[in-house]
Specification:
The protein is an alpha+beta fold. The protein has helices spanning about 10-30, 35-50, 60-80, 85-110, 125-155, 255-259; strands spanning about 115, 120, 155-165, 165-175, 190-195, 205-210, 210-220, 225, 230, 235-240, 250-255. About 45% of the residues lie in helices and about 25% in strands. The longest helix is centred in the middle third of the chain and has 28 residues, at about 85-110. The mean pLDDT is about 75.
């Protein structure tokens, strides 16, 4: 029979730290203007609740218990306004928990720790401690930064289908609020693409940007469809430099959507 020595105080501290990081991440991602003391209270409930895992209960009861504890943590930390508000907090808590928990499990497996239920055993300092001290803040920072960027910019992503000379071209587009390029005299807005398209007739228009000024090669598309919005006779400019947004090969002009 294997004897395992478990330090409950250290286990509770680790669980408290883990829950605190999760709740802070949710608060930042969803921009919840709440007191740090409320978040500490929610994390404290999560930290103490680890004790119930040592009771002899069924898997179903353990699952129900985890859901109840998570809801309590959310209510204590962020309060209750309505069902939608609470559900969103709950879902973000679990999504963030999956990200951090996945990294923790990966590190434990990579370092060949023996697993007994929810406990990982190894000689020396536990990887859980090392992970929480060093890796958790780094992972949370990257996760929150990317999450905020996506939340702020997700509505600016569009699927664009361009039709020209009986051919169809597909683009992943981004609504660039800095793209105010228009055709002189007519003041028609111009969208910018990275792909080379063989047009029958080109014309050039001047532009002025942060990196300088010059002229850009353009043609008139038969029509474009921006998500479900159809536009005809749109001016398209061919960019020489690569768009710096990952996966994007088209920059939309805000005046096109306004019109």
């Amino acid at each position: 029979m294997i004897k395992i020595k478990i330090y409950l105080d250290l286990l509770m501290l680790l669980n408290f730290a883990f829950d605190l990081i999760l709740l802070l991440a949710v608060s930042i991602l969803l921009r919840r203007n709440v007191s740090i003391y409320k978040i500490l209270g929610g994390a404290l409930v999560g930290g103490i609740s680890i004790l119930f895992l040592f009771f002899n209960i069924s898997s179903l009861m353990l699952f129900i218990y985890k859901i109840i504890i998570s809801i309590l943590m959310i209510l204590i930390s962020f309060g209750y306004k309505n069902i939608k508000y609470t559900l969103k907090n709950f879902l973000y808590l679990y999504m963030t928990s999956i990200v951090l928990g996945g990294f923790l499990y990966f590190l434990n497996v990579e370092f060949s720790y023996e697993q007994y239920g929810l406990v990982f055993i190894n000689k020396g300092l536990s990887i859980n401690v090392i992970f929480l001290i060093i890796f958790c803040p780094i992972i949370i920072y990257i996760y929150v930064k990317q999450g905020l960027w996506l939340k702020n910019n997700y509505s600016n992503y569009y699927n664009v289908t361009l039709y020209y000379n009986h051919k169809k071209y597909l683009f992943s587009a981004f609504l660039d609020t800095g793209n105010n390029l228009t055709v002189p005299l007519t003041n028609k807005p111009v969208i910018l693409i990275n792909k080379e398209i063989k047009a029958k007739q080109f014309f050039y228009i001047p532009y002025k940007g942060i990196n300088g000024s010059g002229i850009i090669k353009c043609f008139k598309a038969d029509k474009i469809i921006i998500n479900n919005l159809e536009k005809e006779n749109i001016i398209v400019g061919l960019m020489k430099e690569k768009i710096k947004i990952d996966g994007i090969d088209c920059l939309l002009n805000k005046k096109i959507l306004e019109g």
